[in-house]
Amino acid sequence: MAKAETKTTKQKEVKLPTMEELFKVGAYFGHKRERFNPGNKEFIFGVRNGISIINLEKTVEYLKKAADFLHRKSSEGASFLVVGTKREIREIAKKMAQDLELSHATERWLGGMLTNFETVRKSLKRLEETNASIKNAKEEGLTKKEVGLLQEKSDVLERELGGFKNLPKVPDILVVFDLNFDKIAAVEAKKLGIPVVGILDTNADRKLAEYPVPASDDAPEVVAMIAKVFAEAIRAGRK
Questions:
Q1: Are residues 66 and 129 in the same domain?
Q2: Is the torsion defined by CA of 139, 142, 144, 147 positive or negative?
Q3: Is the pLDDT of residue 4 over 80?
Q4: 156-199: per-residue pLDDT in tens?
Q5: Percentage of the chain with pLDDT > 70?
Q6: In terms of residue numbers, what domain contains 85?
């Protein structure tokens, strides 16, 4: 009984934004009506000037569900992979991941990053070997040109796969900041039975996430606000 009470106390540490705060940053702005995904009907307040308006009551409700889930899984020692490759929000996703020392994909999603995970591990092994060759260039008798070519190769691998370095196996949870832009990542997770937590704009498929948070994924301020809740939930679960 005491243990359950402790968990409840920890969950209360995660502060959710109010509807007013979400309104101020434009979390209610969806996409044009013609881009509306019918599966999101329950999250829509209405349509104004051809734009779907998200019901912020639903945003708060589903954000709490997502935060509670992240908190619980974090307390169980689950591993997370943060995905946010859209240019406007990648730095938000990367900062959250780095602050919590989580694995991440924020440059681009390469098909098979999850479903062909062994290939990713092999590529990371090549990255280690390439960096070792650069470090020991003199001992290996490499020319400046050869070192330059190896550095270019290393930079590409680091940019695309560097966030996976500390991920020895496929993650337990996927956190996606734009379920439409990074839907390939969510689809791969679904194939492997990996639960997905993500921001669900009006044009995205809610079936891609077990824990969707209806909100605009186009405004960095909105994404940052939700990322803060996700981060606090994971951090609180570790205590």
A1: no
A2: negative
A3: no
A4: 888 888 999 889 999 999 999 999 999 999 999 999 999 999 99
A5: 94
A6: 18-114+170-238
Residue 30 has which token pair?
């969806």
CATH for 230: 3.40.50.10490
Q: How many CB atoms lie within 10 A of CB 93?
A: 28
Does one domain contain both 104 and 156?
no
Residues 103, 143, single domain; the answer is no
- Tell me, yes or no, whether 97 and 177 share the same domain: yes
138, pLDDT greater than 80: no
Whether 54 and 150 share a structural domain = no
The pLDDT assigned to 140 comes to 78
Query: Quick one: tokens of 187?
Result: 């689809």
- Residue 73 pLDDT: 98
One domain, residues 95 and 208: yes
CATH number at residue 129: 1.10.287
Nearest to 102 by CA among 79, 78, 131: 79
Of 126, 145, 163, the residue that ends a domain is: 163
What single string gives the DSSP state of each residue in the chain? -HHHHHHHHHHHTSPPPPHHHHHHTTTTEEEEGGG--GGGGGGEEEEETTEEEE-HHHHHHHHHHHHHHHHHHHHTT--EEEE--STTTHHHHHHHHHHTT-EEE-S-PPTTTTTTHHHHHHHHHHHHHHHHHHHTHHHHT--HHHHHHHHHHHHHHHHHHGGGTT-SS--SEEEES-TTTTHHHHHHHHHHT--EEEEE-TTS-GGG-SEEEES-SS-HHHHHHHHHHHHHHHHHHH-
Question: How many CB atoms are closer than 10 A to CB 112?
Answer: 13
Are 135 and 100 found together in one domain? no
